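Please review this pair:
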Amino acid sequence: MAGLSQNCARKLLKALNHLRTFHATAICEKAKTGAEHRWLARHLKDPFVKAAQVQNYRCRSAFKLLEIDQKHQILLPGHVVVDCGAAPGAWSQVAVQRVNAAASDPKASVGFVVGVDLQHLSPLNGAIFLSNADITDLDTQYKIKNILPGGMADVILSDMAPNATGIRDLDHRRIVAVCLSLLDLAQSILRPGGTVLCKLWDGSESQMLQKRLAQCFSSVRTLKPQASRKESAETFFLAKSYKENKKYLEN
């Protein structure tokens, strides 16, 4: 920097550093924008996204539950349902329709739906929502039991999952822990003969979870509905016919 005053040199260095920072940020933003564009393109082409818009479901995940219920008939008029991790509310929409919670069919039994999530839930006719509530918290479970007719449910649904870290084994263990918490909830509120449907990311502890479920339910199936993207590790355990007064055993 010969020939420049110290003050001018400092200003020039500052400008160069600013230029380097701007260039690096621009590269990151370009990469981020490219990934977002790819996601958006896939999202807009997704037939389940389009169907959700046409049928006024809050998100495409509604079709996972619709397919499972169509095949296995877990939601019947008059059923009492607890939807865990309900946001944005698509599964609750399906549950309200199938159990007649909004009394839209005057000839059918009227069901009851409670949705719970850590996030805010926009109101839904036919459902009671507990927003900003942790389903694994005992106080939340106590509130649910008090809300339910007779304190009991026929079906526990869970499409919830912890925020992914990107570390596959860690994320798998965390979602297994979420599923195990549903067994604790089931022992508090689920009627004999009841059903639990829970989402899982496949991994090393899947068989352990299936074994725990089999100790509490007469039937346990692994499901992969068409609306679950093929590249996703997501599967569902459908556990039916809850056994009265049966405690699951620790390994």
In short: The chain has two domains: 6-45, 59-242.
